[in-house]
Amino acid sequence: MSLPKIAVDCMGGDYAPEEIVKGCIWASKEFAQTIFLVGDEQRIKEILKREGVKDERLVVVHAKDTIGMHEPPSNVLKKKESSLYIAGKLVKDGVADGLVSAGNTGAVLTVGKFVIGAIEEVERPAIGVALPNPKGKTVLIDVGANVDCKPKHLVQFAIIGHTYAEEILGIQNPRVGILSIGEEEGKGNELVKETYPLLKQLGLNFLGNAEGRDIYAGTFDVIVCDGFVGNIILKASESLGMAVVQMIKEEIKKSLLAKIGAFLLMPALNNFKKKADFTEYGGIPLLGAKKPVIITHGRANAKAIKNAIKVATEFYTHHFNEKLASNMKKFMPEGAKASWA
Amino acid sequence: MSLPKIAVDCMGGDYAPEEIVKGCIWASKEFAQTIFLVGDEQRIKEILKREGVKDERLVVVHAKDTIGMHEPPSNVLKKKESSLYIAGKLVKDGVADGLVSAGNTGAVLTVGKFVIGAIEEVERPAIGVALPNPKGKTVLIDVGANVDCKPKHLVQFAIIGHTYAEEILGIQNPRVGILSIGEEEGKGNELVKETYPLLKQLGLNFLGNAEGRDIYAGTFDVIVCDGFVGNIILKASESLGMAVVQMIKEEIKKSLLAKIGAFLLMPALNNFKKKADFTEYGGIPLLGAKKPVIITHGRANAKAIKNAIKVATEFYTHHFNEKLASNMKKFMPEGAKASWA
Q1: pLDDT at A277
Q2: In chain A, what percentage of residues exceed pLDDT 70?
Q3: Which of A13, A298, B48, B82 makes the best surface tag, with the fewest CB within 10 Å?
Q4: Does the structure show a pLDDT above 60 at A159?
Q5: Which residues of B touch A269 (CB under 8 A)?
Q6: What is the C-alpha separation between B234 and A232, in angstroms, rounded?
Q7: In this structure, is residue A341 part of a structural domain?
Q8: May I ask which residue range the UniProt record assigns to the signal sequence (chains A, B) (predicted)?
């Protein structure tokens, strides 16, 4: 199995370039044939030197410009000397097989959609995230790439999510649902009501409406929603997790016995934390672009970057993008793209 | 301070009438002048007798019909002999000052809107829930009463949420936000972009867009959203909480030390659980009806019912509904209802 060449935007993210470069060093030992470290050549080489690394699999590509975390995403298309644009161009030109960035999420999406480009049948690439539950994982898609969606977009997300669950998570015949309120067909908002009958036609294992409670219950393998709802759920979940930990800590502080208890519990809690920790996942994929595009948290450290590169490698070695192109043809009814609203 | 008379639907909920009646008995000792126990007279009286209760503050009102948990909500308007309808009618007619039900949520909403009726300036009563965070509470409104909303509805939710935070939670000059993705004005879906400029005009302490991460962070006191998004967040949060507890338990099972640790931690965890437990809150209010309407979880036990009656009493003694009517006049710009889309 040949390993891919991955282009990494070394200037994006809160801890760039230091942690990004360290993540690349770490990943190069396991997950990639070549890593292109794109960014300020001098700074990157200084870090490599300080870390004592001389590895021909790590190739520095100079970029003199950067994209700020709060710049309008479309700026990246004008800033052709930016590390993100150049990294995207390496993928577009076939020099690299996938992109990893911890930078401005909107700008990474823009590069994925307009520099690397979407698979022909996919109108709107979407972000899918595999959320943990006691039985396994559930893919929530879209979690932020597409704010206002039409029924046909949710239909495409369903096929994309199906492919993700099957090819990457190894779930056979994944159970697909549409996020709504109320279980029965006919319950939900206008978008859900219009999308439901289309989803029934696809030949996916479509179980109908999924409710909020299904997201972490393991009752569905794929849940589709528009990027507005999905993004809010994702961020609310993160925030709830942090709030719970903080509130429990406050309670523990009040009692010595509880402090001892917490100490004894630590290894079990750390095992749990591993399941929930974003640095373990590393990155979430923009699904539907022609090549793997992995977006990591702005707060990504070296470990998160290493794991993001691992994710890109998984998508490459599983031929995800080729399988998605084939599934889009297989499941989309003839003429559907043109006729569906 | 005079206590209210509360009408309780004794036939709604998974544990009706047993737990509902017990909750009424419990509450009658503290929170109400009179409780009307509406439902199957014979069954209710049997429970009262078995519990050895003779209290003239507990008045049984017979209803020969019930509303099933999965019936179409509008059925309640036809079933005028149902416990829920009769309880609502007692409030409508001024015999009781507030309604509590653990029954079919949609049917309770229907009774609130169409039997008890909305405050004149409120077009759409909404469900507000006070979610815990490390610093206090944040009101999320609407969490399920209104699926598809227009900008003017979100504006009304903002005034309702403001009044809830100020009068019930005791928060002065509450910080109000609109749920969106991205912090800056102009970010979000079409509904948010249209609502934002209207919210700026109201004279509320409007801070702009709130993101998913703000829901449990204590950065806002009131966050408005449509009932589709709000309901999904509420249920996803519940489900995430349960999943986390289950996953941590699985880890604890694997180690003896962790088991001992968990045992020592128990009191602290129980304190935390109290903060998060729906039976402690008891019920969530339908805000904007003319009188307090409190909906409890279908799984409500006696304690939840007792606390729901307590919530109804709080709304009554704080004159919430009168203050809301006055705030609607104070904050809604002249002619806004007619002219806003």
Answers
A1: 60
A2: 94
A3: A298
A4: yes
A5: 248, 251
A6: 12
A7: no
A8: none
